[in-house]
Amino acid sequence: MNTLNQPTLRRMQLGLSIVELMVAMALGLLLMTGVIQVFLSSRQTYAANEAMGRMQENGRFALEFMARSARLAGYVEPVYAEARPVALVRPSCTGLPGSIPTELCTTTGAGNASDSFGFVFQPPIQDGARRDCLGNSITENNMLLINHYSIIPATATTPPALGCRAYKFNQTTGSWTSGPQAQELISGIDSLQILYGVNTSGDARSANQYVSADRVTNWNNVRAVRIAVLANSIEPITPAPAARNFVLLDAAPVSYADNRARQIFSTTIQLKNTF
Question: Does the residue 12 lie in any domain?
Fold first, then answer.
């Protein structure tokens, strides 16, 4: 028997002990835990940023749709200038020719309920066509248009949304053409409020006081509108946002407990075609 190599074999590494294997596994699990935590945190941050970005985009787009109609309120082309319409749909729908559905009249929501309102104008030709708030083409050149904005309530499968209904008036025949029921423009809009700017100091070209529709005493003196919307993130975010009250213009405070982020967006538009 050769015993010369026995000390050498004992000094060689022949395998891992159970202790060494357990230490290696523990270190591996610690590393994997860290990687998973970083991944989940990044995913959560990405989802929250995406939801916030969508909320801000929806809020800005909602205001842009309504501001575009507000800037055109009262506009008619020169050939029809003698038949200038009222610029704003009033609570009783007075001042409009013919008869329109009462649901198109301006309303003031009680408490924190949303308002609804409409703007009257002759749609100008843009990008080669006249269009209503839903993007539908209007082929007749003598049409007056009501773009009526309201909140479409949430359902079991869809969030609340900003909706619009278009209604057309043929200035030649004196007849109204009913458009479809209110259709969704922008999703994730919880509330809609509007105030009307009037002047109490005698300056007919500016507004120094903003009041709700039920407090306007002379609609011919309205010189501006202030519009506010409350947009939500559509999807719940994590961590959940802190509970708070939201106050839109003169409406009562409103709060939510659905883990969605929310933000108020508002703008003021001067009416250019009312004087």
Answer: no
The candidate with the shortest Cα–Cα distance to 191, out of 271, 266, 88, is: 266
**Contact criterion met (CB below 8 Å) for 63 and 230:** no
Which residues neighbour 44 within 8 Å (Cβ) at sequence distance 6 or greater? 238
- At residue 25, the pLDDT reads 81
In the block, which residue shows the tokens 């209604």?
A: 167
User: Is the pLDDT confidence value at 241 over 80?
Assistant: yes
List CB contacts of 51: < 8 A, sequence separation 6 or more.
Answer: 233, 234, 235, 237, 260, 261
Question: Which 8-state DSSP code applies to residue 104?
Answer: G
Residue 152 lies in a domain: yes
DSSP 227-248: EEEEEE-SS--SSPPPP--B--
Q: What is the tally of structural domains in the chain?
A: 1
Beta strands, E only, 68-160:
117-121, 130-131, 137-138, 143-152
Domain housing 188: 44-270
Residue 155, in any domain of the structure: yes
For residues 62 and 185, the answer to whether their CB atoms sit within 8 Å is yes
pLDDT band at 192 (very low <50, low <70, confident <90, very high): very high
Q: How far from the centroid of its chain's Cα atoms is residue 230's Cα?
A: 7
Q: Is residue 2 part of a domain?
A: no
Provide the whole-model pTM.
0.82
The two three-digit tokens of residue 121, written as one number: 């104008």
Nearest to 179 by CA among 142, 124, 125, 133: 133
| Amino acid identity at 102 | T
* Block residue for tokens 């011919």: 220
What average pLDDT does this structure show over 101-117? 91
Q: Which residues contact 245 (CB under 8 A, 6 or more apart)?
A: 253, 254, 255
